[in-house]
């Protein structure tokens, strides 16, 4: 659900990179509700191995988004492709 992009502040106040998750295009009410729940869950979680919520909202076009800390690393699909283990196993790999 959605795309994840690298976001950076553009107001010059300070430097910060974030992972920006955005649902583009037509978004059904079901998807909007699911995204709202995801934002709420992230806002409530505090754990060193979970990227928590920094901010979230809706674009002028009505597309829901959320910003999380950017964590340098490899994409899960790249890790899975380079591994002999199935994707499900790679997803359970500890940080």
From TrEMBL:
Superkingdom per UniProt: Bacteria
An example Gene Ontology molecular-function term: ATP binding
Keywords attached to this entry: Kinase, Transferase
Residue ranges of domain Protein kinase in the record: 1-95
Keyword Transcription tagged: no
Keyword Kinase: yes
Record-linked Pfam families: PK_Tyr_Ser-Thr (PF07714)
Protein name, per record: Protein tyrosine kinase
